[in-house]
Amino acid sequence: MVRSNKNLQNLNDQLSYREIELAKLLASVEQQRQEVTQAKDAADLRSKQLDMARRGTMNMLRDMEESQLKADAATRAKSDFLANVSHEIRTPMTAILGFSEIIRDNSQDREQIEAIDTIQRNGSHLLGIINDILDLSKVEAGQMTLERITCSPQEIVSDVIELMQVRADSKGISLMAKQHGPLPENIQSDPIRLRRILINVIGNAIKFTEVGSVLVTSQLITDAEEGPTLSFDVTDTGIGLSGQKISQLFQPFVQADTSTSRKFGGTGLGLTISKRMAELLGGDISVTSSPGTGSTFRVTVGTGPLNNMRMMDSTTKVDTKNPKFPKTEAPEKANLDCWVLLAEDRPDNQRLISFVLKKAGADVSVAENGQIALDLALNARDQGTPFDVILMDMQMPVLDGYQATTKLRENNYQGPILALTTHAMTSDRQKCLDAGCDGYATKPIDRKELISVVAQFASKPTPAEC
Predict the structure, then answer these.
(1) What DSSP line would sit under 226-246, residue for residue?
(2) Is the pTM here over 0.85, yes or no?
(3) What is the pLDDT of residues 60-82, one digit of tens each?
(4) Which residues pair with 215 in a beta bridge?
(5) Are 254 and 248 in contact (CB under 8 A)?
(6) Across 55-194, where does the E strand assignment appear?
(7) pLDDT surpassing 80 at residue 422
(8) 272 with 255: CB under 8 angstroms?
């Protein structure tokens, strides 16, 4: 009996121990379950956070993409707007400047000639402002295209000096050019843009100099980190600038101060555009100056490789009297002896361009829109009497010049087509050539240039004649 009780007690003790162990095990399992639950909750929270972050990133990327699309659309809208503004201003200016030039040629009255000169001078000034605004817009939109061709820096400087000499003489100041050290005979650059930069900088120096001189010094810099560069130092004895004014000098539409604008005029765009162009040409524009002692503007541009390039002697002076920079002026009188189709929708410009061409000896037919031009050109060709040249305005109703030219080429029209446009934006020249045009001329027209280009293409045989 006693042994049975002991056995029973031992069994109870073992059961209690097992219960304790089981309780501990259950507590451990519960703790692990809670830890797993917490880990799962943390993982769920992390997953939600990651999902929210992913969605936030996707929304941010979508917002950025939408913002970029809106910015691109705004840039295109601005470019299109400026191009249309250019067209609407340049088109009437073609008639104003063209007819005023014709009246001047036929006038003997001195006062009338002076009045017409005033019209032409101010009209040209207005066109210069338009060109500056369009150039700035192209640079800011990344649409400024540059050439890299072989050109002579000496000839460019010489040409600019000759051009600006009239301004300097009118103010009674000296304009000189020299070179410091040897210069490469040729560089790889954009001669039109470089010429434009130098005209702006030298023109400013002349404008802000009342007494003294303007000196242009050309020099080759071979220790540049990104390759050799040419520098052109334009030093004047003008009004000078303070440090604060220098810091504002290259901001668009900003001049030194409002009194400068009132006294000297201008939009404050020339230097801004020039600096941006110089940067695109692998250089820059900097200035050192102090009030009352004049200024030195340094223009630098990349030269491209100079391997085996002949260097010009450092004592060689730039010839400002007989520049080698080629002039491409047409003769005063020309006998066109050709048949021209003028596609132009504006009556005033129809009269002006027809008058200029007829006076030079051409027969002229007029089409007031692209569809009429297309029909006339194809009919004349099919009858065996094709036009010698088509002058195609690119902005016309019904069919514009691009559409009409494209349709002519699709119909295997082989005759020369010259684009006549007021546009100066977004690679307009290439756009005209892509449409099928053989040449390009801008409005307002230059009589000599227009007659010259018409004569050039009218004399070329078409492929069918070859």
Answers:
(1) TS-EEEEEEEE-S----HHHH
(2) no
(3) 888 888 888 887 777 677 666 76
(4) 176, 235
(5) yes
(6) 149-151, 174-180, 183-184, 187-189
(7) no
(8) no
